[in-house]
Design goal:
3-stranded mixed sheet, about 90 residues
């Protein structure tokens, strides 16, 4: 079931972030369907939007906060995620 696979994968991402980062809220949105017709679309690779509420991330520069998340998800970005949008609240 594709829905369960996505739910499990999102939980894996959430747990990976929780291990190294304190945050108050996290929403992961799959926007892959919006990019299917794009030239750079890669079948099987996800376009995700992470909305994260974190006092810690708000306390550092936006670029460092985004780098921190990208570093935590380095393997996922190599293997499963084609594009990652990050919104920090």
């Amino acid at each position: 079931n594709k829905f369960l696979l996505m739910k499990n994968y999102f939980e894996k991402i959430e747990n990976k972030l929780k291990e190294h980062l304190k945050f108050e809220d996290l929403i992961i949105i799959d926007n892959t369907h919006l990019h299917v017709k794009h030239k750079s679309y890669v079948p099987g690779k996800l376009h995700l939007h992470i909305k994260i509420k974190s006092d810690y991330l708000k306390s550092i520069s936006r670029i460092n906060a985004q780098r921190f998340i990208m570093k935590l998800l380095k393997e996922d970005l190599k293997n499963n995620i084609h594009a990652l949008e990050i919104t920090i609240n």
